[in-house]
Design brief:
This protein is α/β, with parallel strands linked by helices and about 60 residues long. The protein has one domain. The longest helix has 8 residues.
């Protein structure tokens, strides 16, 4: 199963829907810093972002 990171809090029903298709790592709190984002993305296949900028340093 593909793994995704949900970088921002979203509605619980959206998380449950994603879990039907993916292994979900959901961030329930404040926006992730670049280092934390990179750490959590290390073994993920994709990310759901909502207005969070992603730089080369954060990938």
């Amino acid at each position: 199963m593909k793994k995704v990171l949900v970088a921002r809090p979203i509605f619980p029903d959206v998380i449950e829907r994603l879990r039907q298709y993916f292994e979900v790592d959901a961030n329930p709190g404040a926006p992730l810093g670049a280092d934390e984002f990179a750490r959590r993305m290390a073994d993920r296949d994709g990310a759901l972002l909502a207005g969070d900028p992603v730089t080369a340093e954060g990938t």
